[in-house]
């Protein structure tokens, strides 16, 4: 993660109650953006790496306090505050079948819960899916002392919400993949409905392409009847596009729907920070 601080000239801290603050924390650092709801435009973007990469067993309190002391703008009152932790520790449940009292059991069907983590969940109304996810308790407890009305959102949520917005021809499935430094998440949807969602560790583009293609095959998809799109943090996007195109008829480097516009200086980061900028899709 590189250190970036971009504030559009139209950014006005005194208008924060008409803005939406989106925050994403990873083991490498923290990033946040500000969306001006009146114009539907991202007008601030900041990425701040930690002095040392964090681990699963670390206490995050000091880093959270430090970011608030460094950026007073984070202490402002916002229309909404959306927060996501970059992690593949999640599972999805049809909202109609979800029971809050069973949330720990549902999560542990897929993942063991790490020590010092807590389980949270968020509903995606339009997708009819509930995302159950784990996040370090020291992040949420310290963050809430500054921003008590924060909405915590599972990392896969924006990808799922996006996938269910797509319109495709009959019998054509949309396969969408979001890359991070350490893992990638792939969703499969058809007819505005989520069919599958899973994450895989990222090793290299050949390995990633194999898992993406195999995931499609295992779920019974005809590779000639899918549209595969990918975005996120990926150094060799052209390379994986070339590999995938040997097996899949339609491959897109980038997603087609833009939920918001971007000020000129921020637009260059919209792919690598796709999840951060699109937490707004999670209703």
Proportion in β-strands: 25-35%
Number of strands: 15
Residues in helix, %: 10-25%
CATH architecture of the largest domain: 2-Layer Sandwich
Distance between the termini: 28 Å
What does this structure look like?
The chain has seven helices and 15 strands. With 283 residues, it is of the alpha/beta class. Strands 1, 2, 3, 4, 5, 9 and 15 form a seven-stranded mixed β-sheet that branches. Strands 12-11-10-13-14 form a five-stranded mixed β-sheet, with helices on both faces. α6 links the parallel β13 and β14. The protein is globular. The mean pLDDT is 94.
Gist of the model:
It contains 7 helices and 15 strands.
Comma- or semicolon-separated keywords:
single chain, 283 residues, alpha/beta, 15 strands, 21% helix
Sequence-ordered SSE layout with sheet pairings:
Elements: E1 4-7, E2 19-25, E3 29-36, E4 41-49, H1 61-70, E5 80-85, E6 90-94, H2 103-108, E7 117-124, E8 129-136, H3 137-146, E9 151-153, H4 157-163, E10 173-179, E11 183-190, E12 193-201, H5 205-218, E13 226-232, H6 237-245, E14 250-253, E15 261-262, H7 274-277
Parallel strand pairs: 2-5, 4-15, 5-9, 10-13, 13-14
Antiparallel strand pairs: 1-4, 2-3, 3-4, 6-8, 7-8, 10-11, 11-12
Helix pairs in contact: 1-3, 5-6
């Amino acid at each position: 993660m590189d250190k970036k601080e971009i504030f559009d000239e139209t950014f006005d801290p005194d208008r924060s109650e008409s803005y939406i603050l989106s925050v994403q924390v990873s083991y490498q650092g923290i990033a946040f953006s500000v969306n001006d709801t009146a114009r539907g435009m991202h007008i601030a973007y900041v990425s701040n790496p930690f002095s040392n990469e964090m681990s699963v067993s670390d206490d995050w309190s000091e880093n959270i306090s430090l970011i608030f002391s460094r950026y007073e703008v984070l202490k402002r009152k916002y229309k909404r505050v959306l927060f996501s932790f970059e992690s593949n520790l999640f599972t999805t449940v049809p909202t109609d079948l979800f029971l809050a009292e069973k949330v720990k059991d549902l999560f542990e069907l897929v993942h063991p819960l790490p020590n010092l983590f807590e389980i949270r969940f968020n509903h995606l109304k339009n997708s009819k899916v509930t995302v159950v996810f784990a996040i370090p308790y020291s992040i949420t407890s310290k963050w809430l002392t500054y921003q008590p009305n924060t909405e915590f959102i599972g990392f896969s949520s924006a990808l799922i919400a996006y996938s269910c917005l797509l319109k495709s021809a009959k019998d054509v499935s949309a396969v969408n993949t979001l890359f991070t430094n350490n893992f990638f998440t792939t969703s499969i949807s058809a007819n505005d409905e989520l069919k599958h969602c899973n994450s895989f560790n990222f090793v290299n583009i050949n390995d990633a392409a194999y898992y993406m293609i195999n995931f499609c095959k295992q779920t019974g998809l005809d590779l000639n009847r899918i549209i595969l799109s990918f975005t996120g943090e990926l150094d060799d996007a052209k390379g994986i596009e070339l590999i995938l195109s040997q097996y899949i008829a339609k491959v897109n480097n980038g997603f087609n729907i833009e939920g918001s516009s971007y000020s000129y200086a921020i637009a260059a980061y919209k792919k690598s920070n796709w999840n951060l900028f699109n937490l707004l899709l999670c209703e």
